[in-house]
């Protein structure tokens, strides 16, 4: 028992005890926080599946950033890397991939403004080798959609990660007016095959048996009311179905008919497109 004459030390003693306890608890918490495993570049891809964005012809990072920024308003979504590909096909990577990001987003930017399926090969190979990626999601707008599909049927190797989910937006798979006038007048048969096969579509048809069976596909396209989004005919965008059906895990189409159905506006802060992107990337389905 503490004698009365020593009670003057009781207050300071209690303060010291409290500080020691709190300090010890804080140190324990600090040690727990700082002893958590931090993913190194070689294995960060084992944590979560990234989504890669490719812009359309004449586009660049500006064609991707609206979708990336809008997705990043959802918990867990964040851009982690950016690949800039020069005219020779050489890719330069920038950014930081935090393993805590549940839905990592990666921008792929062609400095020439011309998406190239062949140039996707070294990017994907580097991602698998340097970051340990086993699978990935892909989003493409316009020519970026065509690049992803062309890659999927002709350029896949074991050195690259597997395609998990693919979102195509306004893909000119069977051509478009200005390049091929017959693309707008083609019809889609009951089997999904277009009545007209354009020169750019023929290689996809010839190699469609190679489309990965690991992938689910969402095909988004705009219709301003006259069978086109102002640049890409609906029948050209829907020609993707003939390429992937029977191979993909699932194939889903959604048409955008609102005030932002125009070709370039499909990727510019488009609420309906962003809704579909979020649903599909997180669940593999859309409402």
Automatic annotation (TrEMBL):
Task: Check the record and name the Pfam families matching this protein.
Answer: DUF915
Q: Which parts of the chain span the membrane according to its record? A: 9-30
Q: Does the keyword Transmembrane apply?
A: yes
Keywords per UniProt = Membrane, Transmembrane, Transmembrane helix
Q: Which InterPro entries match?
A: AB_hydrolase_fold, DUF915_hydro-like
UniProt keyword Transmembrane helix, yes or no: yes
Task: From the Swiss-Prot or TrEMBL record, give the protein name.
Answer: Alpha/beta hydrolase
The organism named in the record is Schleiferilactobacillus shenzhenensis LY-73
